Amino acid sequence: MAIELVTKFLPLVDEKFATESKKSLLTNNDFDWNGAHSVKVYKVNTSAMNDYDRNAQTDNWSRFGPIGGLDAVTEEMTLKKDRSFTFAIDKLDTDETAQQLAAASALERQMREVVIPEVDAYTYGVMCENAGIKPAAVALSADNIFAEILKANTALDNAEVPETGRILVVTPDVYYFMKTNSDVYLASDVAEDMRLKGVIGYLDGAKVVKVPANRLPEGFGFMIAHPVATVAPTKLEDYRVHQDPPGISGSLVEGRICYDAFVLDNKKNAIYYQAKA
Q1: Residue 43: pLDDT above 80?
Q2: Pick from 236, 215, 235, 239: nearest CA to 85
Q3: CA 211, 127, 136, 161 torsion: positive or negative?
Q4: Would you say 33 and 209 are in contact if contact means Cβ atoms under 8 Å apart?
Q5: Is a pLDDT exceeding 80 seen at residue 10?
Q6: Tell me, what's the pLDDT at 188?
Q7: For residue 259, what are the contacts with CB-CB under 8 A and spacing of at least 6?
Q8: For residues 38 and 79, is the Cβ–Cβ distance under 8 A?
Q9: How confident is the model over 97-110, as a mean pLDDT?
Q10: Is-contact 184 145, C-beta < 8 A?
C-alpha cells in the first residue's frame, strides 16, 4: 500500500546573510555635489621659512628673505558610477507564493545583497589603490599582526595624521590572528552608537571594524584610515515600485544610484594599506 506523505510549504523565505555597510565610518561627505557633476578643490602650497636679516643693506628690499608666490592648483572630482537595476514581478507570482515574492521586500533584498555590497567594494578599492602609505606586502600571522598594526600607526603619527578618529579595517581572518595573539588587547568599552555602526573594539587608539573579504580587494591585509582622507558622495538614490505599468500585470521595480569615492591628494597619507604576501 502506497502512502503519500504531506509536504508543507511555509510562507517564509530563506534569506541570504548580508553585512551592514561600514563605509560611513571611513569616509566623509564634506563636499556638495548638488547641482553639479564635478567638484574642483583647490590645493594651495606654503612658503619656506627664512632667517630674518636685521642688518640687511638698504639695496636689499626685503629683510624677510626672497619673496615667492603661492601656487593654487585644483583637483577635479567627477562622479563616474551611475548604476541601475530593474525587474518585474507578475501579479500571479505574488499571489501564488504566499505574498513572498512581493515588490517591497524584493527591493529591500536587492539593496541589502547587491547595491550596498557593490558600493562598499568600490569605495574600499579606491581607498586601497590611492592610499598614501603602502608598504611591501607581508605574510600576516598571529605572531606579527600586532607589530604590523603598531608600525602602521607609527607611520600615520609621523605623517601627522590626527590621532583620534582612525579606523582599523580587518578581514575576519586577520581578526582571528588578532584574537589569538596574546599581546593584543582589544578594548571592548564601545558606545552603543558605535556598535550599531560596526565598531567591535579599540586597538592602539583606533576603532576596529571587521569587513567580509569579498568586499575588499584581493590580497587585503588590513587598512588604517582617517575619514578626512576619503570623500564618498552619493548624489542620487532613486528607488521606485510601479504598480501595473503598461505592458505588465504586476509590479515593476526600478532603481538608480549615482555615487563615487575620491581620496584627496593632500590627505592620502591618512590611509595606510597593508597587503598580504
Answers
A1: no
A2: 239
A3: negative
A4: no
A5: no
A6: 66
A7: 79, 81, 83, 119, 122, 232, 233, 234, 235
A8: yes
A9: 75
A10: yes
Phi, psi of 39 (to 5 degrees): -130, 135
C-alpha cell read off for 105: 521586500
- Quick one: pLDDT at residue 98? 56
Q: Calculate the CA 248 to chain-centre distance.
A: 38
What whole-number distance in Å separates Cα of residue 75 and Cα of residue 40?
A: 6
Q: Are 226 and 167 in contact (CB under 8 A)?
A: yes
Helix (H), strand (E), coil (C) string for 255-266 = EEEEECCEECHH
> Which amino acid does the sequence have at 15?
E
Could you write out the DSSP letters of every residue in 200-249?
Answer: EEEETTEEEEE--GGGS-TTEEEEEE-GGGEE--EEEEEEEEEES-TT-S
Supply the pLDDT for residue 103: 80
Q: d(Cα 249, Cα 251) in Å, to the nearest integer?
A: 7
Residue 21 near residue 116 (C-beta atoms within 8 A) = yes
Q: What cell numbers appear for 99 in the block? A: 505574498
- Report yes or no on whether pTM surpasses 0.90: no
Average pLDDT for 131-145: 95
Q: Express each pLDDT in 163-194 by its tens digit.
A: 999 999 999 999 999 988 887 777 666 667 77
* Mean pLDDT across 206-211: 93
Closest to 122 in 3D by CA, of 257, 224, 226: 257
Pairwise CA distance, residues 254 & 251, whole Å: 10
For the chain, domain boundaries: 80-275
